[in-house]
Amino acid sequence: MKKGHKKSIIALLTGILVFVTGSLILLYFAGQKLAATISEDATHLVKHIDTALQERRRILTPLNNLGFKQCDQATLLEMRRALFDAKYVIDIGFFKNDQLVCTTGAGLLDKVINDKSPDYIIVDENIRVRFEPQLYLLLFSDRPMEVIIVRQGDYNLIIDTKVFNDDVISSPMWEVVYKHKRSINHLAGQSGVYDTLVNNVYLPYERRLICSEQNSNYCVALHMPWNKFFAKNHFLLIISLILTCLAGVSSALLVDNLIADRRSTFNRIRLGLNKNSFYWTYQPIICLQTGTVIGCEVLARFKDKYGTLYPDQFIPLLRKNNLTWKFTEAMIAKVLKELTAIDILPEGFKVSLNIFPCDVEQGNVSSLTQVSELTNSRFIICLEITEDEYLDTSIAHAHFRTLVKSGFNLSLDDFGTGYSNLKNLQNLSFHQLKIDRTFVQDIATEGLKASMIPNIMELVKKFNYTCVAEGIETSEQEAILKTAGVHYGQGWKYGRPMKVNKFHEYMAKQSV
Ligand SMILES: Nc1nc2c(ncn2[C@@H]2O[C@@H]3COP(=O)(O)O[C@H]4[C@@H](O)[C@H](n5cnc6c(=O)[nH]c(N)nc65)O[C@@H]4COP(=O)(O)O[C@H]3[C@H]2O)c(=O)[nH]1
């Protein structure tokens, strides 16, 4: 699979994962909200039950204790007093010989009414309860009412189930029941809900069954289906879904960027410095008069799992991110180890190391005088420094002098290309000028730069430098440079930059 495709798939999968996780979290919180809503409704209904039970006790027990044996004005007065504070009870009746003889609403009845058999009896309190879905109360005989009729002793009371059904309850299905052993008696709400909720399987959170703590036979069952819940909260849900989608998309983009960042040249270089992804190659330097190899230039390369990088890709980034000295230290350690191990390299073999001008200015180069492997090396260590304004300061000059005192050779690299303002060339303590390969390449076309080579050689002679020409590819270039008096040459004509083992082989062939 192509790397780009792999990256997109990882980003896509992350986006999907975030979306799914976000949706699950959303669902979890929605579930919590749904459970909380049903619980609130349930608590509300149970509170109604408890208050109705208290009211029942508060009315029936004192009335029975009064001991009236028939309904007269005094009886009615007590009954009406009891009703006065009631919230749930809408009527109280008096019984004589199991026949209703008077009620608070209708007073003394013209015609007595026989009591009906109850739905259930609470034996220990001698309470008989009946649910009446359509009772025509004597006072409001024009409209039927859904009521619970509770009788104890000589009195009964009528509770309007409407009071349970207030606006606070948002669950669309609910029921209040009296549960005794296996029988379930409907009291309020929608008949059959309790039974259905107990005997069927439901999604989590969407149903609730609880009983009163005062009397555990009174229970409520509520049902709020998820779709109804979502319909009620659709605005919030849409917003949350949009946010989850956005989170999915942004994390996909983020991962895409992170992967891109990981593969960015800078990140590869940063990690590569610690993971030894840099390696160094060696390009021979030849004495143009004798043709012998007198030294080599050390040139960096980079290779990691994403491929190879060349100096024009990593050198500017090392500079920009202040990693030049870390890089140079790594180079020196590795190169010294590799070259010292090649025993055929003679005493005085010249090893040219590229040094960043900024490390001269910052004084990092001075620490090289403390590296005994460098100062005691059997090689001549030549530090190649590109022409740069950094070198044109008194601090830089002082550092150069320190380096020279410790035995280092200094070479002015890419001479004639960059900053060509160096005022006091003779004060720089340099040993060598390196003619840039653009000058050498110009020889074939007899260009302007090629015509400047004699002038460069005059400077070389004047300041008693040695001179290296880089980028020699042809015998014609070699011959002209040799005639011009250039001492050393470097270029593909003699050998490309090579890894240490190849360089070893190359040097072995030279000494045969
Ligand atoms: N066309 C052509 N090119 C030739 C020929 N002979 C040599 N070259 C190339 O010319 C460049 C010479 O190195 P430079 O001027 O020091 O220029 C170097 C040097 O300034 C810098 N560099 C390379 N390695 C290091 C390092 O380890 N440290 C530092 N500070 N700079 C380095 O990167 C620059 C480029 O390095 P490279 O890409 O290796 O490019 C090298 C080398 O491969 C030739 O005959 N024809």
UniProtKB/TrEMBL annotation:
The chain crosses the membrane at residues 9-30, 235-260. Gene3D superfamilies: EAL domain (3.20.20.450). It is found in: Cell membrane. SUPFAM superfamilies: EAL domain-like (SSF141868). It is a multi-pass membrane protein. PANTHER family: CYCLIC DI-GMP PHOSPHODIESTERASE PDEA-RELATED (PTHR33121:SF74), CYCLIC DI-GMP PHOSPHODIESTERASE PDEF (PTHR33121). This is cyclic-guanylate-specific phosphodiesterase. It comes from Pseudoalteromonas fuliginea.
